[in-house]
Design a protein that fits this description.
The complex is a heterodimer of chains A (536) and B (340).
Chain A: H1 2-24, E1 38-43, H2 59-68, E2 73-78, E3 81-86, E4 89-94, E5 100-105, H3 119-132, E6 149-153, E7 156-160, H4 168-171, H5 180-184, H6 194-197, E8 207-213, E9 217-222, E10 238-243, H7 247-256, H8 268-274, E11 280-286, E12 289-295, H9 305-314, H10 317-323, H11 353-361, H12 367-370, E13 374-378, H13 381-394, E14 401-405, H14 408-415, E15 425-431, H15 442-445, H16 462-473, H17 477-494, E16 497-501, E17 504-510, E18 513-514, E19 532-533
Parallel strand pairs in A: 1-10, 13-14
Antiparallel strand pairs in A: 2-3, 4-5, 5-7, 6-7, 8-9, 9-10, 11-17, 12-15, 12-16, 18-19
Chain B: H1 3-31, H2 36-41, H3 47-57, H4 63-75, H5 89-124, H6 129-143, H7 146-160, H8 183-189, H9 193-230, H10 233-240, H11 245-258, H12 261-282, H13 288-298, H14 301-329, H15 331-339
Helix pairs in contact in B: 1-14, 5-6, 5-9, 5-12, 5-14, 6-9, 7-9, 7-12, 8-9, 9-11, 9-12, 12-13, 12-14, 13-14, 14-15
The chains are: A alpha+beta (536), B mainly alpha (340).
Amino acid sequence: MLTAIVLIVIIAIAVAAGVTYYYLNLPSTTTTPTSPVVFTHISTEEYSSLDPQFATGAGEDFSIMINVYDRLFSPAIVNGVETFVPDLVTNYNVSSDGLTWTMQIHQGVKFHDGTEMTAEDVVWSFNRYLEYGHGFSYLYTGLIGPGNTTALDNYTVQFTFSQPYTSFAASLVRFAVLNSKLVTAHILEGTLGHDWLNFNDAGSGPYYIKEVHPHQDLVLAMYVPYWKGWASGRRITEAHFIPVIETSTMKQELISGTADIDDGWMSADDYRSLATYSSLVIERFPWVQERVLSMNNQKFPFDDIHVRKAVSWVFNYTDYNQVEEWNAPQAQGPVPVGLFGHESSLFVYHQNLTAAIAELAQSKYTPAQLAQPIIVPVYNDKTEEVALYVADQLKAINLTIQPMMTTYSQILASFALGPQSAPSMVWWGNTEKYPSPDAYLYSVFSNSSWGTWQGQCWYNNSEVQTLLVQSLHTVDQTQLLQLYSSIQQKIVDDAPMIWLANPKCDIVVQKWVHGFTWVSALGEYLYLPNFTIDQH
Amino acid sequence: MSLKIYVAKKGLEIILTLFFVLLIIFFLVRLVPGDIAYVALGNAAPRAEIERFRREMGLSLPLPEQFFLLISNLLHGKLGISGLSTNDALSDVVYYLPATVELATLAMMVAIVLGIVLGVTAGLTENKKIDNLLSFFAISGLSAPVFLTAIFLQVIVARLIPSFPLIGRLEIGYSVPRVTGLMLVDTLLAGNLGAFISAVKCLVMPTLTLALGPTAAIMRLVRANTMREKRKSYITNFKADGLPNSLLRWRYILPNAISPALTMAGLQFANALGGSFVIETIFVFPGIGWLGVDAMIAKDINVIQGTTLFAAIFFLISNFAVDFLHTYIDPRMRFKEKAE
């Protein structure tokens, strides 16, 4: 009897499984009304906000922003160098004193609700940006305030600065123009309409926000009447942005073909393993990014230039870049190779143990003092791995590195507490946010950055400080390039940090995806109009 | 003890337990290093903005004041602002809760049915091949960490049925308006059969992964009870009286063997909710588990407090429900209550 029952149960389960399998594998076209050209992007991080004037750090925010909104300028690679080009702007000029920027914008640009973009929208959006105080609006602190931007006519905008700001046009690649009438109607929903913008669309870009499912899926759909028009080919009509925290899940999504592209933030080992699948293509591009080992120039033992130089000499750059960065080239100074303003004639350290020992011999600290462990904060497997690698390297000159597990936000918070509370050494990656050397010079080495993550090496050299301020306000490009060169030379002489690598960016795409166009600035590689998708 | 007094006593216990849970969570969260302000505003935010944010979140207040603020917020039906979403944390938790409830409920249904069927089968076929095989399954199910099972399932399915969804609650191409937040219900309410099938497909892997541990636990308990029951003297007497084996199994052994599984199911339901933290992350299933992990990474304290508080509430309610049902189902329990 029991055997019969067990048999019946097994048969019932088998039949149920068979029926379920049959139904689950019915062609989905029977239930999907149309056949959009769907593109799925999976990422290790989720966008922080759909308000395009909110984010500063997450690539996902910018990938969405550049597709939903238009900008006055956008980053581009020109003659092999990453710089910026006009986008909404048709032409612009700067007054001889560098204080007034006048820009004409394209006529006939339509927001997604059909209204035409005018200079008033630009003025309103810029004022909101400054008043709201998020995103990259901090770049304009003390230079231009709300009310200093005017619409000269329907298509001409004028920005009036109190001091010249050289990188203004470059910084505008992170400024989105909003539909002022639409946002004004919802201005009371959160700070300056932030809550409304978190779920809605006030843009004029090539795609509009179709559906928002937080933590699950963001759907963008093609805006067919886009003012730039559409190139031929099977273009993406519907793009899905899906956050996937687990790397193993990301890999399976790519292997099974349900995701079309990743975000480039998996580890080198993951990309090595994915490269073995013939269905996938690993796109490798030189990245305008600095991978650095910052030394706290105001704290033991790195307040001594000889210790900093000794560490710079002892490091095996070739080995590090092979092991930790999957054969990335060594960084050459503070400005990444490939960015406008990079000085190519800088001195570059290589491993030289004799030079390291000689430098250390000149240190103001005794060997006994230098034997004290140096705490290096780590916050994930990768940073711990690098810290252990650095510890191994520094053993050669009897410096002891002690990794200490903490959280990312704790490291950020520690910078605000002053140089003695901030980490002695920290491994960091600084990806290009806007195409200007400012982001790697003034933002990192100016005294004004002390207390923020960017000023993490607590660098102080009065001569360089003067030059940095001068570089902010120099309008003449030739003079500016000379200044950048001089600043870079002097910073390298002080060895405030170790410039490890200009890593390659690895992005996995399916074979049926074409048109991948590399631009280094955060999130820009995902400009959806570039892509075409084969039928698959 | 009357039913009213029993319920009131249990209710008071629940409230006191929740208070202490909240107190512990409150201090634990604050012991973890990190600052939500930097995560929420970005690492380049000016210090003035960071300070303003901390003030708005109440993070600048002394700890006792922060705790009283939390209690006061709770009494007003709030949990405080989420640093990430800028919504009240309670509304975030309530928004993501149905996904977890749907997943955990389905997983428990699967676990109870499979656990009982397999446990009884193993118990009745004691020490035979089928029992050994099922016992091996039970030990594996109890031993395997959920993240390993989840990844293993993904790897297998991604290779065998590449079109099968590995993540999410609905496949791409389907969308239904949110009514209850329970995807199976919402797809049916929308009258979209395709979306319903898609929701079922999306639930298969996370449900099986979440159900594996509870299934194994219930199965082992039912197996042991079945074996113990069939050796009891009243069964021997009935056998001697000539009662057929089928009658003995289904009328006497099974009801007695599976009733203790109820307690186990209740506890496993609460555990399933805890396990969903890992499973929701791996399967990108946006419930309170996913929300909790996201909040923990960012140290979004109000959301962490909210998700853990809800997990505690679930645990307590399921325990209470089990106790309550036991007093009804098992006459001995009722007698004990009266004897007190």
